[in-house]
Amino acid sequence: MDPQQSHLAALVALITNATQLVETRFKTSAQPYVPTLDDTEEHPLDKELSDPALRAAIQTIEGACAQLCATVARPSHTIVNVLAPHCLNVVTTFKIADILEERPEGMHVKDLGARVGIDPEKLGRILRLLATRHVFREVTDDVFANNRLSVQLLSTNPISSLGLHFTEEAFGSASFLTQTLADPEWGTSRDPRKTAFNKYTKYEGSLFEYFEGGTPLGAAMGQRFGVAMVGWGTAIEAGNVVYEYPWDKLPHGASVCDVGAGIGSITLQLAKAHPHLKLKLQDLPERVVQARDEVWPKQCPEAIAEDRIEFEAIDFFTESPIAGCDVYYLKNIIHNWLDGPSIKILSGIRKVMGPNSRVLIHEYILQHATPSSAKIEPSSLRHKQAPAELLSNYGAGRIRQYNLDLVMMSLLNAQERTLEDFVELGEASGLEFVKLWDFGEMSAVEFKLAGGVAPE
């Protein structure tokens, strides 16, 4: 048997055996039934002290489930979900993973502490918490080494920038969320300048104004944010859109306009995977210059040489994108804005669409934690429901999009949206819903012109 399969099978067996013991305890109790998460009445076992075997079984289930998930999931996926932001911030700021990369056998906390100039005993406690969550490995007492997850925190990996963004701007702002909600004026505001971020930083402008040079620190964080978004795309497997949307069915020379592209991380992948496409990259002038002069000449010079990529600056609140493109692609754009600005962006695109053009909005699509009562028909256009034993939205299996929804609230007074929300936005912008594409963690909503000519 393959060693990795053997390890997974051993974890599954631990879970199975421990679950059988727990189930037996419930069924032989004063009320012989196994409760579900929907129950609100207290079960007799909830008030009793657990015997040693039951305690051990529950600890085994919790530990084995977490280890199984950490083992099988992509490391970039898991590291972004680690709920120890203060510890992640310390090890990322002090580049602990980089130092341990020099010593694969591990390094004692005394040497690590001396190297970075912080108290070794405190550093050891931080690393032990992370190792308990399978980030880093404690080789022997107080000696730590990198592992599959901690190497994601190397300073050369964009995930490390993402970790700093979340543990500083995002979670720092979230710590002021209660205070913001309790504020008589700010609590009900949708103003991007009256957010938990503003209370946290005491900066009066919006997050994007902060990133665009509102302060020297904000400008530095803005540069880091650009790198962080590359790491975010890796963690959430945003690149699935490159292979699972039928780009190959578009005719030779079909045009795809990436609106608000940044440096064009998805467009770069499209250029390499689908060289028959003509690509247009549009964003604010500084990002377009960065893409045209720095990123694309290094990462995809053939697209420039073959005239398959066009760079053009845009302010999508005051200008429409390049006219007549076959697909207008927006990734993680609409979730930054409330309905009014979003309708302005989409209406600007609608003005320049041809009769067969499509708009593809690539974002998280929130689902309710109960079977949907949505009126969108046929049902094939909606998300597939999770197995009946789970919450309809997969619960913790898709928790990140709900976490991000609260991050957007804290940073910008913005939001992630449901499919119904997107359909309403489209209708208000003169667009007609065509299809929901499920790309795994992220999805995409496809629109055409309302009353437009359907493609052949």
Architecture overview:
The chain has 456 residues and is an alpha/beta fold. The chain has 4 domains: 3-72, no CATH class; 76-153, Arc Repressor Mutant, subunit A (Orthogonal Bundle); 159-234, no CATH class; 249-398 and 409-449, Rossmann fold. Helices cover 48% and strands 12% of the residues. The chain has 20 helices and 12 strands. The strands form 3 sheets. It has a 7-stranded mixed sheet, with helices on both faces. The protein is globular, with a radius of gyration of 25 Å. The mean pLDDT is 90. It holds the Pfam family Methyltransf_2. Keywords: Methyltransferase, S-adenosyl-L-methionine, Transferase. Residues 254-372 form the O-methyltransferase C-terminal domain. This is S-adenosyl-L-methionine-dependent methyltransferase. One of its GO terms (molecular function) is O-methyltransferase activity.
Overall CATH class of the largest domain? Alpha Beta
Q: Between the first and last Cα atoms, what is the distance in angstroms?
A: 51 Å
**Poorly predicted segments:** none
Considering DSSP H and I runs of 4 or more, what fraction of the residues is helical? 40-55%
Write down the overall mean pLDDT: 90
Structural class: alpha/beta
- What is the overall silhouette? globular
CA-based gyration radius = 25 Å
Number of helices: 20
CATH topology of the largest domain: Rossmann fold
Number of strands: 12
Number of domains: 4
Give the CATH architecture of the largest domain.
3-Layer(aba) Sandwich
Q: What topology, given as strand order, has the largest sheet?
A: 6-5-4-7-8-12-11
Q: What is the H level of CATH, i.e. the homologous superfamily of the largest domain? A: Vaccinia Virus protein VP39
- Which sheet architecture does the biggest sheet show? 7 strands, mixed
Strand content: 5-15%
